[in-house]
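Priority: medium. Attachment 1 of 2:
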């Protein structure tokens, strides 16, 4: 799924203003400006649209986790250079302190059915036989269900 769509969805769902977005990016170890955020949030057909890199979105999601759950003891999390839908889903699940059933309930709100075993396959290590890639449709429906849950 497009990183910019994920960022837009999170901003809308939790009603983050530009200052809050900058603060969350800083919590994740990314220095950014209001102009950069504006360009990342622009529609894809806008002439000032700029695609957000995986590393920057990973920093935002790490900052989101810190914002929602507090700073973890120990070393700072390493920013991923490439980010999959599975990793985005995992970071959102951690940040919102969700159990598997909560994720399934959010998907249900978006009229998307998924079994518990199918969901757990998204959170396995890629080397395991039961691992499955999280498709764009699943992540999109999870973000929609998240909006229906946190911003009805």
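Attachment 2 of 2:
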């Amino acid at each position: 799924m497009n990183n910019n769509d994920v960022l837009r969805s999170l901003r809308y769902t939790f009603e983050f203003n530009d200052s809050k977005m900058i603060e969350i990016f800083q919590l994740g170890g990314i220095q950014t400006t209001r102009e950069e955020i504006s360009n990342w949030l622009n529609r894809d057909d806008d002439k000032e649209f700029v695609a957000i890199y995986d590393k920057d979105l990973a920093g935002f999601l790490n900052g989101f986790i810190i914002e929602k759950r507090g700073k973890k003891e120990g070393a700072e999390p390493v920013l991923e250079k490439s980010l999959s839908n599975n990793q985005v889903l995992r970071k959102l699940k951690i940040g919102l302190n969700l159990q598997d059933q909560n994720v399934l309930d959010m998907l249900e709100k978006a009229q998307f059915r998924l079994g518990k075993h199918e969901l757990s396959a998204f959170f396995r290590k890629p080397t395991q036989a039961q691992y499955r890639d999280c498709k764009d449709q699943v992540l999109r429906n999870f973000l929609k269900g998240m909006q229906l849950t946190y911003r009805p």
